[in-house]
Design goal:
heterodimer; A: about 110 residues; 5 helices; about 55% helix; B: mainly alpha; elongated
Chain lengths: ~110, ~230
């Protein structure tokens, strides 16, 4: 999928990935890849500024946890506000998708009469 | 390879040590996970691939810098409102003190004092209106999504409102300084003089805090631009 198109919807994609539960950055990327059927393959580094931005907007919260390996990792979770924002964006996206779908179906080339 | 990559990223974010440390730790954790998940037997090759998939360090640092600048711009909008209020209290306290102690301005200073007072009033109320407008703009509107031109426009408008509000407040504080100097001119130095001097020092400190914040935001914005230019070269 086009990188620019993906970047325009990055915040919604990250929020949707965290809807399944709290996760650290690497797990968020894995979820995005898996849930999109490998279609979304962004440069992995673009996810982290998005996570920080969404945390700044109070849509996510984060905390350090110590993994079994002993490494400290930052785990992100949706806040109430984040859940509401995701629900709103999902509704807007559904509307947009239905409208584009309708347009594209209507624009299918008609077969010429014999 | 991973330490060199982390060094490049952390050094690009060195303007904010706590952000730099946090990003370094998060990215290190990510890259080690990516290497561990790589089926390649050659660790060096796995590290190379993990770093390549993560992206260009300066492009990522530029995006972090923009996020940091945006956060600081929002806190600046709130700080301006608070500082305008503190300056207002300091001004009112000084005027009340002059009234309570029946302290009047020297006769020869009154014409100049009248002009400065007029400038002070207009500058102060301009800063009040613009500070409220800037705060309402930043808090009342949703920040446009990342990487959209609307986001840059949003922060440009907000920064302009904050900058003009601060400039008007600076003019007001300078005018207050002149009025205080006129008032103190020729007066006998006593402990009574400390009240106007202290209230003026408070006003100057408020403006200093705002100036320091604006300088930090400007530095971050310049840093983000430099990192972006470095990527596009």
């Amino acid at each position: 999928m086009e990188g620019e198109m993906l970047k325009g919807h990055l915040d919604m994609i990250v929020l949707a990935a965290l809807a399944a539960g709290p996760a650290h950055g690497y797990a968020v990327i894995e979820r995005i890849r898996r849930n999109s059927g490998q279609a979304f393959d962004l440069p992995e580094g673009t996810i982290y500024p998005a996570l920080h931005r969404l945390e700044q907007a109070a849509l996510l919260s984060s905390r350090w946890v110590t993994a079994e390996s002993g490494r400290r990792r930052r785990v992100y979770a949706l806040t109430r506000r984040g859940e509401r924002a995701l629900a709103e964006r999902r509704a807007v996206w559904q509307q947009f998708s239905d409208a584009i779908g309708g347009l594209l179906q209507g624009a299918r080339p008609r077969r010429r009469p014999a | 390879m991973i330490p060199a990559y982390l060094d490049a990223l952390a050094s690009a974010l060195s303007f904010d040590p706590s952000l730099s440390r946090r990003v370094r730790q998060e990215v290190e954790d990510h890259l080690l996970d990516a290497v561990a998940a790589d089926p390649a037997r050659d660790r060096r090759e796995a590290e190379r691939q993990a770093v390549a998939r993560f992206g260009e360090p300066h492009a990522i640092a530029a995006e972090f810098t923009r996020v940091a600048a945006a956060r600081q711009a929002r806190s600046l909008a709130a700080a301006i409102v608070v500082m305008v209020f503190v300056v207002f209290i300091a001004m009112k306290a000084r005027v009340a003190w002059y009234a309570a102690t029946a302290w009047t301005m020297a006769e020869d200073m009154r014409p100049a004092g009248g002009i400065v007072l007029l400038i002070d009033r207009y500058a102060f109320w301009t800063s009040v209106l613009l500070a409220i407008a800037g705060f309402a703009y930043m808090v009342g509107r949703r920040i446009p999504p990342a990487l959209h031109r609307a986001r840059d426009r949003y922060f440009r408008h907000a920064s302009l409102l904050c900058a003009i509000a601060t400039a008007a407040l600076v003019v007001s504080v300078i005018s207050d300084g002149l009025l205080t100097a006129f008032q103190l001119r020729g007066a006998q130095w006593s402990t009574q003089s400390l009240i106007p001097i202290f209230s003026m020092a408070l006003e100057v400190a408020c403006v200093g805090v705002l100036g320091w914040q604006i300088r930090a935001i400007t530095r971050k914005a310049a840093c983000a631009r430099a990192l972006e230019n470095r990527c596009s070269l």
